[in-house]
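Input sequence (375 aa), recorded before submission:
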Amino acid sequence: MASFSPGSRRQFLKTSALGGLGVAAGLRFAGVARAQNAAAAPAARGPTRGAAPAAAPITPAPPARVALTTGNSRADNTLRALKALEKEITQAIGNKRVIVKPNNVIIDQPQSVTHADHLEAILDFLKSIGKTDIAIAESPAMGSALEGFANYDYNKFVGKYGVKLVDLDKEGCETLYCLDQMDMRSHPCRMSKMLLDPNNFIISAPKLKTHDLVVATLSLKNIVVGAPIKDPGAGLGSDGPNGGRSDKPIVHGGGTRGIHYNLCALAPRLHPHLAVLDGFEGMEGTGPVFGTAIAHRVCVVSADWLAADTVAAELMGLGIGKIGYLTYSAQAGLGQADLNKITILGPALQDHIKTYKEPAKMDQLLSWQRPVPSV
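Predicted structure, token format:
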């Protein structure tokens, strides 16, 4: 979502029809609360950067492989990272339709969105392995996805690769439920049917960015927060100035506990099948829209989205211990988050870590780490 002033964010959250969902992975909010309390004292920076122990026994995630590339060409970095995992990606896709989900949070801020060169490298790779049934699909926070595609030079892909450009707001929906930490009730949220369809292979293709509510936007958040749909004319609140409604506020859960919980809770149905994270030029500070560019020259790819996000968080100098939804996902066994069990294909991870400037008011953003107040 876009960055707001404190007053507008308060109003945004206050007017949102936010809601609640039982965690499909076996967590319940009480379990998350216990996990929050267990993580109250941030853990030391270690191999997993502070992932707290699970609230209940969880089947361990299998080891994972993550491709890491670095260099002076964004497209070349992306293509080489994908080629490093070509066999397993090809097998995973099979005969499914491929949906590439960029991160176009807003339709007129090029520095904050997925670069066309990153997408073109993904399309070149898919072409090289014989995949032709491909769509690039998005639902931005405000405005038309198709207008954003035109602004960001995606239209050229239609003729060159035969891809379809899709506005997720117009492709049907399914109702899921999300938690609102303010009332602890479940509220319905219209979610993109295309991103939920098990016959589609979902590629998450964001850039590395800090975020002014959840600390970092990575591959999972790109899918989960892009999935809620909006009506024509909808604004950032649940009811737009022209009468349209956006369901995007619902997944934000009423605050830092709610949004982290919802991202983890929805992950079993809305996770990417392939994470392709562009860190050629990241964003630090006041992300996800108005931050500052940071030259990083990296790309991260994995069929295990949590492993990819864990490596990306390390590269940003954050670690998942500061990112609640990744900590919860690790606790729930939704993927591999132990760097000792992640094989890096490429250069040494520690040689390419850059410390991104954190968003403002980090103490507030880390409130999910503190014990839940007694009731």
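Checked by second reader. Residues 68 and 300 are 5 Å apart (CA to CA).
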